[in-house]
Structures are given as C-alpha cells and as structure tokens.
C-alpha cells in the first residue's frame, strides 16, 4: 500500500468559500514523499511564477520571494508532472491540513487543464487527526495544532526548516506514523 505525503507553499491565502480554480493562490513550492513497501521516493520543486507574484504575507511565512521563485523555479507543468507521477501510484494521500493543500493542488491541475489523480484515494489529515491527541486549548474546545505543535507533541522536539515544503512533508510523516502506531 503506497502512501503519498505532500505539502505546498503558496503565493497567498486561499479564497474561502471557493473551490479549485483560477482565483486560488498559486503553488510556490511543492514537495512529496511516496512510501511504498519500504521504498521511498521524493520530489521538491520551486515553481517559477507565470505572471503572478508572491504576496508579502506569504513571503513572510515561507521566505520565498517572487524573485527567488523566478530565478530558481521550474514551470508549474514540470512540478505537477513530477507530483502526478507519484500521486498516481499512491493509495493514500496524507497532509497536515489536507483540505488546504488539496485545494491549491487541484487549482493548479484545473489551470493546466489536466485530470488530477486524487479520485478514489484515501485521504488522511494529520492536523485533524492530531487535534484530540495533542489537546491544545482553543476558543471552542481543542484547536487544530500547527505542524510544529503536533511534531513537538509526538517527538518532544522541534523540526528544522518549518515552511519549507519538503521539511514539512517529513515532519508530517513522523506525525502520521506516531498517530498510526501509538506506543
């Protein structure tokens, strides 16, 4: 059974109440790790802007500027192509706040006019699954833990490189494995 862990860093916040489409933010960085019977493959790509810019707020979160993405990025079709190859082989998709990452990935597929490989796959959100385990107080019960908060709960430490998509994917995998195999 193959499991794909994935994460995105984006050009801006998502538009609430809107589904996948051209008004959603663009992917600035896309990373994935596919685990299949002990074998692991990974991809991580910065995406070159094609007429869009990284918002100042998004840049403050992940540290990737429009200029850096332009200089070091690859076309979105290339990044999605690598992701598609891995996602097509997966039975289960895992992300921390999978609704967010799914929305921005599906928006890119829609912009590219490509069929996405998510249909019929199981999805697992480490953010939601960890909420009742981590038990951080919120306004109306437990709040959804950030990736760093969940990681700290399960490991006792923090991970380096938060908001780098590949570092986040690796932390998400640690959380997933801790939830799936408590002990």
From TrEMBL:
GO terms for molecular function: 3'-5' exonuclease activity; nucleic acid binding. The keyword Lyase does not apply. The lineage of its organism: unclassified sequences, metagenomes, ecological metagenomes. This is Exonuclease domain-containing protein. Pfam families: RNase_T. Gene3D superfamilies: Ribonuclease H-like superfamily/Ribonuclease H (3.30.420.10). It comes from marine sediment metagenome. Residues 1-24 are annotated as: Disordered. The keyword Ribonucleoprotein does not apply. Keywords: Exonuclease, Hydrolase, Nuclease. InterPro entries: Ribonucl_H (IPR013520), RNaseH-like_sf (IPR012337), RNaseH_sf (IPR036397). Residues 2-183 form the Exonuclease domain.
